[in-house]
């Protein structure tokens, strides 16, 4: 079933923005994507914190948080199970990289929740190693900014390989994340996730899982490792605010290496703690 998306600009129903908007000219801004269940945004506080941190990192004046929250709740109203994307643009102005002191523009897009996710969570993910790396840039590391061309190329490759997601490394060859999800792997009682100090997106669900693991029997480490470490992992999972967490069945690293996983111990532990977990 196709559900038509709904759009708001600064809280007003609207389908267009100005051509002079810096999000169009330069990808100047940041965003977050949240799940809406029964008119309630999941992990709203974490999403607001992410947007504020993104604005801070981009030296962008953030919108008023109370007003932003009001607009989010307005867009979530009446949604039983939906996705809400919140974009903060640097606003409208003329050409040139230097920003003027103009107010930000907030764009909200509500769309249907992906129908494929429940089946994927039950079946488990098939991953492929992406040939497209992420550029190392500590100034943008962790921020979900609007420059997503690397992800566009990665997603195309994933589709061509008939996979569900990707393992993505940086230009130094170190593990970073998936195309649109964060990565964890388990070796015994030790859980690892890539450090995101050089590039990548510090996901809302990743932060939530890190907090959950602090009170579990598992020891968790943020680390810099090459993808070969996954060959010896007992379990691999991926997460984002929509999934919210999914087990990985296999990783096709290249033509010669194919790693498979059957354990779901970490996944089983985390699922009840993930807000809006798929029934």
From TrEMBL:
UniProt catalytic activity: 4-amino-4-deoxychorismate = 4-aminobenzoate + pyruvate + H(+)
One of the record's GO molecular function terms: 4-amino-4-deoxychorismate lyase activity
The protein's annotated pathway: Cofactor biosynthesis; tetrahydrofolate biosynthesis; 4-aminobenzoate from chorismate: step 2/2
UniProt xrefs under InterPro entries: Aminodeoxychorismate_lyase_IV, Aminotrans_IV, Aminotrans_IV_CS, Aminotransferase-like, BCAT-like_C, BCAT-like_N, Class-IV_PLP-Dep_Aminotrnsfr
Top EC class for this record: lyase
Pfam families, per database record: Aminotran_4 (PF01063)
Keyword tags: Folate biosynthesis, Lyase, Pyridoxal phosphate
Cofactors: pyridoxal 5'-phosphate
A GO BP entry: 4-aminobenzoate biosynthetic process
Enzyme Commission code: 4.1.3.38
GO CC annotation, single: cytosol
Domain of life of the native organism: Bacteria
Residues spanning the signal sequence: none
Biological role stated in the UniProt entry: Involved in the biosynthesis of p-aminobenzoate (PABA), a precursor of tetrahydrofolate. Converts 4-amino-4-deoxychorismate into 4-aminobenzoate (PABA) and pyruvate.
Quaternary data: Homodimer.
Membership in a protein family: Belongs to the class-IV pyridoxal-phosphate-dependent aminotransferase family.
Protein name (record): Aminodeoxychorismate lyase
Species lineage: Bacteria, Pseudomonadati, Pseudomonadota, Gammaproteobacteria, Enterobacterales
